[in-house]
Structure of Probable ATP-dependent RNA helicase DDX46:
Amino acid sequence: MSGRDMIGIAKTGSGKTLAFLLPMFRHIADQPELESDDGPIAIIMTPTRELAMQIGKECRKFSKSLNLRCVCVYGGTGISEQIAELKRGAEIIVCTPGRMIDMLAANSGKVTNLRRCTYIVLDEADRMFDMGFEPQVMKIVDNVRPDRLTVMFSATFPRQMEALARRVLTKPIEVTVGGRSVVCADVEQFIIVLEDTQKFLKLLEILGLYQERGSCLVFVHKQEHADELMKNLLKHGYPCMSLHGGIDQYDRDSTMEDFKAGNIKLLIATSVCSRGLDVKDLVLVVNYDCPNHYEDYVHRCGRTGRAGNHGYAYTFVSHDQGRHAGDLIKALELSKTPVPEELKVLWQKFKDEMEADGKKISSYSGFHGKGFKFDETEAELANDRKKLQKAALGLQDSDDEDAGLDIEQKIERMFASRKRVCDVNQSLTSLPSASNINNVQSQSNLEKLELAKKAASQINILKNTTAEPLDVNQQAAAAILKGGVAVTHVSSKTIAEQMAEKINAKLGYRPMTEEEKEAELGILPANQVAEPTKRYEEELEINDFPQTARWKVTSREALSQISEFSDAGITVRGIYIPPNKDPKEGERKLYLGIEATSEIAVQKAKAEITRLIKEELVRLQNSYQPISKNRYKVL
Ligand SMILES: Nc1ncnc2c1ncn2[C@@H]1O[C@H](COP(=O)(O)OP(=O)(O)OP(=O)(O)O)[C@@H](O)[C@H]1O
């Protein structure tokens, strides 16, 4: 309420939605009214479409009487109605980040814009900052005025995620109500260790106990399992539906509506339903497949025991899932629930097995490798590569939240970056490996200037004859995101100057300033001449990223855009070496060389390269649709 940025952490079902809606209404009431063509004053971002719908519904309960308009913008459904609604104007947009970006770019920015946006909510903030959403969230947040109010809410907030989140907050206050990342005390937890073959019968037994008392939600790990289990339950006389990312959005919406209205009492879902969903009278959660990380367990269990009601959460762990036992023990201990002996035994067994393999177990989940063939760093690197390649091939479940944690760090590690700083003048003779400068080493500065000018003018001619729409489009998109008008005009002279600057950077040549020229002509005293500048270089290995990610950062357009944006020269060097092959003598794996006259320029270029690779990895993973949508239609 006081206008500070904040991180709010409170247990599931405690009413966090209202905690950000009420101050938001007050904030909007203090702003001047929207004029035609104004975008929203408040944006609420959520990780799932169902959650966006739910928050939109909650918001409208209040906004109607306050004469405010709230529009839900989320993917998977027709874009035209959402565009029409936005064009009529809305003070509040509840959205999933991907579709919001589509809207901002739609119709050259005439649909909506961020000019008036001063209040941003990131609900389920920790989820919003993992691999799936961070690039999109940052794209939006970075284009909202810096003096905005930003608030983040979640029931869980791992420390490593918090550091990332704080990048978009200004001196935030952190409000924690009750525990941080703890299962709500109103949820009674049961862990059952059993064989896979016993799971279905156990589920029938549990449903027999609870089905009469209210709605039940069963979580499975994969989309196929959800459909399979639904069929089996239908066969056994339990009317139910399934809900997951592979189902058409219209069917997802209607299933969710039916489940919330109590028309369907039993829902089989993947973790797409684990966060934020609020279903009245949901009395039972069954983790038919054990969640594969701690936060997911907390959120899944939190679908029951909401708003002061009592709920029950059962979790099945099979004997070969000892690796998850640590997280479950942690969850039980933190919520002061006795840990079953069988679970302790399972965990101990897993730890013993790992230790026998030479792997050290940390207190709960995860282990630190002590491989036989690799040293620790190599093992980690190999593992990261495997994961990224898996992601690129779409081999992970699309609802697997674990997939992208700390992806930037992994990319950074794969870059195996090498840095160098050198004096410009020295560098001309001491850095023969630095790309195109070999043939100009012995030339004088004046000759180099002439060379740069000629090359720039040739490129300029080429630019004018083969226009590059991408450059212009990108500028337009940036302008639209900022709420401006998409006008881009770059004169030939400017292009020539920019190209000359870039070539100068590559050559390691710094043109003389007016003062220096005058000094050389004897007009200024020599002691007023500026000190020689330094050149900063960094090499980033890109050989082992998936092919499309490599293409993305080596294309001519991408390189010229990054150069333009960062003021650094970038060259593609080395050759591509396939996996499991070593470079021959004198060869180097494919890498990018960045050179600039300031460290900031190098960092800007590197950040952009990282962003492009990350975006591509996310795209590859999200575009994986293994199963035909039609299979999931429930008639
Ligand atoms: N002051 C209140 N008194 C009674 N019920 C409330 C109050 N505030 C919120 N609720 C109800 O509590 C339920 C849970 O609220 P909400 O969905 O905001 O929880 P949450 O903290 O966001 O949970 P999650 O972490 O799962 O997203 C909703 O049904 C809401 O209507």
Q: What stands out?
A: The chain has 23 helices and 19 strands. Residues 187-357 form a domain with the Rossmann fold fold (CATH 3.40.50.300). The pocket of adenosine-5'-triphosphate is lined by residues 10, 12-18, 155, 276, 278, 302, 306-307 (CB under 6 Å). The radius of gyration is 28 Å.
